[in-house]
């Protein structure tokens, strides 16, 4: 095999408020617990069945931690892209334990708020290549963590630190804007 791929994509709801921790060097990490559910109809009884999986997500991208801190709460619906990472740790009895979690860091990570910003600025906006799109509210979150405005809306950060370049439609060109294409219902 020529290479490998470590990529996780999840759509789910936060089961608790995000946990934000600070490092001694001033950096921050946001820890999320995301629930994804699968439903089906039992062939024998005809009853609706549901199974929920819980995923631990660690976000190290400085800008995205700021977005999580300001806008996400228990119950928020999000789309994330990250990588699986297993870490080894020891419990109180000294036994080795392993935890596998989704890690978002750098340019490869994506966080999209599917139910909109709960109290932030309102901007328009198209997608940028490495940008983190925030759904329903129409905000685009760039790697810097700010809000960029592609259609003249206000920027929540008061600066243009959310701009991303390359790829995406950038809110220009023929056809409709990304925010205009959003429906109230997700097609899956």
UniProtKB/TrEMBL annotation:
GO biological process: DNA recombination; DNA repair; DNA replication
Disordered: region residues: 118-188
Biased composition (Gly residues): 118-176
GO molecular function: single-stranded DNA binding
SUPFAM superfamilies from the UniProt entry: Nucleic acid-binding proteins
Keyword check for Ligase: no
Keyword DNA-binding in annotation: yes
GO cellular component terms, semicolon-separated: nucleoid
Motif Important for interaction with partner proteins boundaries: 183-188
Pfam families: SSB (PF00436)
Classification via InterPro entries: NA-bd_OB-fold, Primosome_PriB/ssb, ssDNA-bd
Keywords: DNA damage, DNA recombination, DNA repair, DNA replication, DNA-binding
Primary role: Plays an important role in DNA replication, recombination and repair. Binds to ssDNA and to an array of partner proteins to recruit them to their sites of action during DNA metabolism.
HAMAP family on file: SSB
NCBIfam families: ssb (TIGR00621)
Subunit structure as annotated in this protein's UniProt entry: Homotetramer.
Protein name, UniProt field: Single-stranded DNA-binding protein
């Amino acid at each position: 095999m020529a290479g490998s791929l470590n990529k996780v994509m999840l759509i789910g709801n936060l089961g608790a408020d995000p946990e934000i921790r600070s490092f001694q060097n001033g950096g921050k990490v946001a820890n999320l617990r995301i629930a994804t559910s699968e439903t089906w109809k039992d062939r024998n009884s005809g009853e609706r069945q549901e199974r929920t999986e819980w995923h631990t997500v660690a976000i190290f991208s400085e800008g995205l931690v700021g977005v999580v801190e300001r806008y996400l709460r228990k119950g928020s619906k999000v789309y994330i892209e990250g990588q699986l990472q297993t870490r080894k740790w020891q419990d109180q009895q000294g036994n080795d334990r392993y935890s596998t979690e989704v890690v978002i860091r750098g340019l490869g990570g994506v966080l999209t708020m599917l139910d909109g910003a709960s109290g932030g600025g309102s901007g328009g906006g198209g997608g940028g290549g490495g940008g983190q799109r925030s759904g329903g509210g129409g905000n685009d979150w760039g790697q810097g963590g700010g809000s960029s405005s592609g259609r003249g809306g206000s920027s929540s950060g008061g600066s243009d630190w959310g701009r991303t370049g390359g790829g995406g439609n950038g809110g220009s060109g023929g056809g409709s804007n990304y925010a205009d294409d959003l429906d109230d219902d997700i097609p899956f």
